[in-house]
Design brief:
SPOC-like_C_dom_sf; Ku70, Chain: A, Domain 2; double-stranded DNA binding; 24% strand; DNA damage; seven-stranded mixed barrel; alpha+beta; single chain; 294 residues
């Protein structure tokens, strides 16, 4: 199997220590089902073109230029070389500016994760940084130019390597107040809260990403397969939301169903234990009989 191709190569610098590293994409969407856009009448693929909004003429690639709207349909034209000159110079160095507690940054600022691995001649310095952060239980804040943008990167130990997550800038993250400003201030009934706490308690567990199914992708695959084979495809009926007046009864029903499952599980385990004990007793009796006969 071919080794993955690095998306970026440079250095990590902390204090006066520098080590060469390679950066690899940690996530990929290449396995997702993708579709082409077709002409419904001919079945041919549709080609995307840029069209002048006023004349309707097709604008070829060489005639296209970027523009910033200043208002009332007026634009400032930005030539490619002007945009390129505005990109900060890159020295290919992730310069660590601070070490912080691992949980200090709100997850809403997380953008995209990348794996950081050492290049040749940098293994010892890399291991020093990785193990030092593990020992101190900290993460590192660094900055560099990645993919033509100045980015802030959160670096954390990850297995035998490091994981670098690009961070959204503050202006890119919307205020939570905007999303929750219309949320009603509701006082929850004590019984409802106790039932909800009970259900939560019985559902406690751990996260295993290998057991998380992408139902959307699976449903698309089933739909495509059914279309290819000319078979009907069963549409999924969305669940009905609990009405405010039915919420308490829904909680009671949930708690009751969970209690039945727990009782049934205990009964099955108890029967299994008794059967095992009975088999063990028979085995011991048979062995004792053999010893007497001997």
């Amino acid at each position: 199997m071919a080794s993955p191709r690095a998306n970026w190569k440079g250095h990590i610098r902390f204090g006066e220590v520098t080590c060469p590293v390679a950066l690899f994409t940690a996530t990929s969407s290449s396995e997702r089902i993708s579709f082409n856009i077709l002409n419904r009448k001919t079945g041919n693929r549709v080609r995307r073109e840029f069209v002048d909004s006023e004349t309707g003429d097709v604008v070829e690639h060489h005639a296209q230029v970027k523009g910033y709207e200043t208002g009332n349909g007026r634009y400032v034209v930005l030539e490619p070389d002007e945009i390129a000159s505005a990109v900060p110079d890159s020295d290919k160095t992730l310069s660590i500016t601070a070490f912080i507690p691992c949980d200090e940054i709100d997850d809403v600022y997380f953008d995209k994760p990348y794996y950081l691995a050492p290049q040749e001649t940098g293994e010892e310095a890399f291991a020093l940084l990785r193990d030092g952060m593990k020992e101190a239980q900290v993460a590192a804040i660094a900055s560099t130019v990645l993919f033509r943008r100045l980015r802030t990167v959160l670096i954390r130990p990850h297995g035998d390597g490091l994981i670098g997550t690009t961070l959204n800038f503050d202006y890119e993250v919307r205020s939570a107040d905007e999303a929750f400003e219309d949320t009603a201030d509701i006082k929850i009934d004590k019984e409802m809260l106790e039932l909800a706490s009970h259900i939560i308690g019985t559902k406690k567990g751990s996260y295993d990403p290998s057991k998380s199914d992408d139902r959307y992708e699976e449903a698309l695959a089933e739909l495509v397969k059914a279309k290819i084979e000319g078979k009907p495809f069963k549409k999924i009926t969305p669940p009905k939301a609990s009405k405010p007046g039915d919420l308490l009864q829904a909680l009671r029903d949930s708690a009751g169903a969970l209690q039945k499952k727990t009782t049934k599980r205990k009964s099955v385990n108890s029967n299994t234990t008794r059967k095992a004990a009975a088999r063990s007793g028979k085995s011991n009796s048979a062995a004792a009989s053999r010893r007497k006969a001997g």
